[in-house]
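Throughout our pipeline, every protein is held as a single compact record rather than as scattered files. The remainder of this section carries one protein's record, kept here as part of the documentation.

===
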Amino acid sequence: MTVSDQSSPRLATLLSSASVEISSRGHQIAELRDHFAAGIDVTITFLPGDHYRHNVETATALRRAGYNPVLHIAAREMASRDALDDFLARARGEADVTRIVLIAGDVAAARGPFKSTLDVCASGSIEAHGITAVSVAGHPEGHPFLELPDALNGLKAWRDWGRRTGARVDVVTQFCFESAPILQWIAEMDRAGIDLPVIVGLAGPATPATLTKFALRCGIGNSMRALRAQIGRFGRLLTDTGPDDVVRGLRCAPPAATAPIVGFHLFPFGGLRKAGGWLRTYDRGPLAFERAAMSSAGLQNP
């Protein structure tokens, strides 16, 4: 049976409307318009040193350009409860933001009262400001500071909060270089009784050196071997590597194993142009996607 015979049309449809992320630094909206259709979710990262008011300005510009802005909120970057409330009020009032991505943040010490995402959850600010959807992070290859039972307990707490407040809670995964860790992690969630929807994070096309840099920064573990195998198999030191193998593995998995997947999110490590081009190739159909993947690997003439 071929990959196409086993593929899931549902996953293909979800991938065609994948979300993507940009930074509030620089001017990426014009490039975004060139490579991604209006109407999709576009997340705005919250990097150390960002000011939330500038991020809200970026969200407002995205809304005007026809995209659905989704703001990252870094808990440890919030200097006070008042700052969090102001951030959320401006996000709703100026950019009509209804979904946020809540992360702990990349700083070791909290600038204010929020040491974790669950501290923000407990504050009551999210529901008070009319945010109806919250995405939290999932780590299929483990978290450097959390054991799996603790990570699962955190997701259970978010599941329970969503049930109490009526807000939609989903999990956006960290990227991997193969599908097995994602499928195993989904199975762990199922065994723990965590029925949260899953949005699979994909590393957009980039050189292996770039992907390795981000992988080391993000704590990617065992699936690094898949990236190294691709380099060794095809000599692709300078050739962009996309998430082809990950998508192919998910498409080949039994439908029950991928049932919680409700979307995909692209991390455009190689830039928006390359990420959008990869997505358009996939959207032309499985055959075009397979041919493009084989061509980029040097397995057939373009």
